[in-house]
Amino acid sequence: MKLRNLGNSGLEVSAVGVGCNNLGGRLDRDGTMKLIPAAIDLGITLFDTADSYPVGKPGVSETLLGEALGDRRKDVVVATKFANVMGPGEMMRGGSRRWIMTAVEGSLRRLKTDWIDLYQMHFPDPNTPIDETLRALDDVIRAGKVRYIGCSNFAGWQIATARAASRELGLNAFASDQDEYSILVREVEREIIPAARANGMGFLPYFPLASGFLTGKYRRNAPMPEGARITVAKIFQDNYLTDENWQIVERLEDFCQTHGKTLLDLAFSWLLANPTVSSVIAGATKTEQLAANVKAAEWALTPDQLAQIDRISPLPKTKKIH
Ligand code: NAP
Fold first, then answer.
1. Cα-Cα-Cα-Cα dihedral of 283, 286, 289, 293, to 10°?
2. Alpha carbon of 169 to ligand 1 centroid (Å)
3. Residue 316: which pLDDT band, with cuts at 50, 70 and 90?
4. Fewer CB within 10 Å: C terminus or N terminus of the chain?
5. What is the mean pLDDT of residues 282-297?
6. Helix, strand, coil % over all residues of the chain, rounded to 5
7. Are 269 and 259 in contact (CB under 8 A)?
8. If you measure from the C-alpha of residue 208 to the centroid of ligand 1, how many angstroms do you get, rounded to a whole number?
9. Contact predicate 5/37, CB 8 Å
10. Cα separation of 294 and 42, whole Å?
């Protein structure tokens, strides 16, 4: 397994990570206890969760991850997040000093660890000045509870503003940003990835497999795989299974076939061809998926192949009004 630095930081993470938003949701406790050790056995070192995972059962993903890691916690990089809603009312969320000091203790307790390797702000908080958030995060680093900090779902200007504030105030800065990115959803290439790169940050793509659409297991006009995420959730069908996306995916599959590769190989290797991408944190529901995902990261795409892919799945043009 190749390791990559998280941006300009000294934190090394495996090129293939595991997204943990399924734990305790679509993947039950027994499945989690098998999946996490299997991932470590395959050389995966990055596990990305959040205090709010899984949807509707906040805290359960962290609890199961901590349990499944057990003694092997010291061998891996645990990334979690704060700022999403963790309870009723307006107090249990956001980026205030008050909430961060409470949220970090909750995550440490559930993860059964003394430190969080990467503590990410899940969403920007329009009601808290970024200076306050960064000072509180700097304090939890200095207290030894957190090693590195990151952000998620930040706009390009918010990334740049946060970095400037850290520099000005002499505080630890965000080492990474996380946002949706896949060969089908390339919007982050416009502002967000350039902002991350310019500020020495790594980028962690979420929904890298378009929730499983880019694994090749969905076929147009054919029954969908039983129990799979897109099969069971209409919202993902509406998001991904559009006529335009089917056309792109079918052309990408033809491209892969001519190179003796699979769509899954392309989904991972295309993201990793971008040097700002630190790790592809795909979710998984079965241990066999993990092995396939690790293997899929091995295709070294040439500039000519990347140009062909740009023609099949281009970054949509912006509409300018003059
Ligand atoms: P994803 O990686 O695009 O899709 C993962 C799903 O694809 C799996 O749960 C599995 O679902 C299927 N799959 C994975 N590998 C496969 C294989 N080899 N063959 C066949 N099917 C396979 O989506 P994601 O897991 O939601 O996103 C990744 C991570 O990003 C999350 O776990 C989470 O940590 C993070 N995230 C962050 C945010 C944020 O706001 N920061 C938002 C969303 C996600 P089935 O088996 O059910 O098909």
1. 40
2. 37
3. confident
4. C
5. 97
6. 45, 15, 40
7. no
8. 7
9. no
10. 8
- The label of the residue with tokens 């329009």 reads 126
pLDDT for the residue numbered 181? 98
- Beta-bridged to residue 178, according to DSSP, are 152, 204
- How confident is residue 90, by pLDDT bands cut at 50, 70 and 90? confident
Helices 60-69 and 97-111 cross at an angle (nearest 10°) of 40
Q: Is the CB of 211 under 6 A from ligand 1?
A: yes
CB-CB contact of 18 with 46 (8 Å): yes
What is the signed CA dihedral for 261, 267, 272, 278, rounded to 10 degrees? -150
Using CA positions, which residue lies closest to atom 19 of ligand 1? 289
Measured N-to-C along each axis, helices 130-142 and 97-111 cross at an angle, to the nearest 10 degrees, of 40
pTM for the structure as a whole: 0.97
CB 182 within 8 A of CB 46: no
Q: What domains are defined for the chain?
A: 3-211+266-302 (3.20.20.100)
Residue 124 three-state SS: coil
Tell which atom from ligand 1 comes closest to the C-alpha of 81. 41
**Confidence at 117, pLDDT banded by 50, 70, 90:** very high
Write down the pLDDT at residue 319: 66
Nearest atom within ligand 1 for CA of residue 285: 46
Residue 95 φ then ψ, to 5°: -120, 25
Question: Does residue 21's CB lie within 6 angstroms of at least one atom of ligand 1?
Answer: yes
What's the count of helices (H) and strands (E) in the chain, helices before strands?
12, 9
Q: Is there a catalytic annotation at residue 181? A: no
